[in-house]
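A common beginner's mistake is to predict each chain separately and then try to dock the pieces by hand. The better habit, illustrated here, is to supply every component at once so that their relative placement is modeled jointly.
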Amino acid sequence: MRRWNGWGDETVSAVLPPRASGTLGSWVGPGTPPRDATPEEVLASVPPSRLGPEPALSLDPWERLLHARGQSLPDWIALRSGRVGTVPDAVAYPETGEDVAGLLAWARRKGARLIPYGGGTSVAGHVNPLPSQEPVVTVDLSRLSSLIALDETSRLATFGAGVKGPDLEAALRARGFTLGHFPQSFELSTLGGWIATRSSGQQSLGYGRIERLFAGGRVETPSGRLDLPAFPASAAGPDLRELVLGSEGRLGVITEGTVRVSPLPAREEVHGVFLPDLATAVAAVRELAAMRLPLSMLRLSTPEETRTTLVLAGHERLVKALERYLSFRGAREEKCLLLAGFSGSENLVRQTRRLALGALAMRGGVVAGKAFGREWHRNRFRAPYLRNSLWEAGWAVDTLETAAPWSRVPELLASVETSLREGLAGEGERVHAFTHFSHVYLDGSSLYTTYLFRLHADPEESLARWRKLKTAASAAIVAGGGTISHQHGVGTDHAPWLAAEKGELGVGALRSLFLFFDPEGLLNPGKLVS
Ligand SMILES: Cc1cc2nc3c(=O)[nH]c(=O)nc-3n(C[C@H](O)[C@H](O)[C@H](O)COP(=O)(O)OP(=O)(O)OC[C@H]3O[C@@H](n4cnc5c(N)ncnc54)[C@H](O)[C@@H]3O)c2cc1C
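With all components supplied together, the output reads:
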């Protein structure tokens, strides 16, 4: 069963290695475990629904509570403290596109607002109802989840948009295919959510981000149905798929998505390579990107993240032995861990691996072998579970991400990390921040920063700490020429910085677009653009 106030399945937990707690404590100060509100306490704060009984709606307070928040740190603080605030008045579970069209017509008659909801894994406030005069219904798309068609010749698969990652991959795997889209939220996030937020997966270097995988689909909008045929390419004016990608539930409800799938690879490997320092490592990944090798992943950790990863890994004796070996090979304090992924036919993997590891060796890279990669692969969806354990130990963890051209990356990285590390100095608190380059492109890279700080006994103070850090880091991103989001989207949390990137004209164009499809503003009000 899904955790109601944290990440993932209740039966799964990630244990913090004993030494890790001590080290984290020495970095930011010892945590004080907070007292979390019980489900009963939180339920008691859910206001009565403003809607009467309707066959298509659940007014059940627990269902409404479960759909009130996503997975951002403010969402966690709200749920764990029991101060949830606004809760939807009802939840709908449409089973067909026609049901969705019916809900839109009902919302227009009633003046109600609708929030499309995939897996609720948003980390930017996308699915949270905002206070409003009008009743709000969350539209949970989990029942639109079947494989509708698989055109094996064209390698196109059409799914109901509410399908979750594991179900989508299982359906494809049974027919010898994969989508290859593996965001870290894979367990719970959905195809519709990926499209609506322009998501990126761990192997997007090889398979492409969702915008490359999304070939077409169907969207129910308040102004009617928008069908997007799947052409391999088209010069018939602007691509309407681009309007739907990143629309964050404002334009319509995606009911079906057609995606470009690939045959299951014969071989998948991930290798860990340690490079001597960040400048060398960045030069090496830029070189690999320029070589246009068919790699499935390049994930480069800064020295700080490499240190943190080794601390959190546990396995103390093994790590010490590894450190000795790396030091002997010249990779010391400033070493950076690079994970390089290869996937495809046996032959392709062998050739690509030879070229890529050869180029890395020329830069002083020490190949740590497949064991590192296997460990990463095994745990790649487990890392978010650590957030639960860290919270319970009294520490808050959040992440933020951006992307920028290579020429701006070093300064941007430094200014974002500094804004976080110094963000709470005024109140005598330390922040531990570390970054990896999660997606590498020919012209630049994404930067994915994790930061950890102590929870305050008062949840409002914890929220104020988060706000201070988020504001400082977002300002640093904008000032440093980065995008306000490489993969998490805008929601409410990034909206104040959107105009800095798109310009007032660009934001105005988005407003007009949403008004065209949704003249009465029924869908997800207040998100992306106000
Ligand atoms: C632990 C964790 C790890 C994460 N890792 C990644 C990662 O690696 N890469 C990445 O890109 N993101 C990541 N995210 C962020 C999040 O998972 C993505 O934004 C994801 O795409 C959201 O999908 P969802 O189905 O949960 O959408 P939701 O959170 O339910 O919704 C997100 C937005 O999309 C809209 N929406 C959802 N479904 C539809 C639909 N059918 N039609 C119209 N609008 C819709 C909603 O209205 C909302 O505005 C992570 C989040 C967490 C908590």
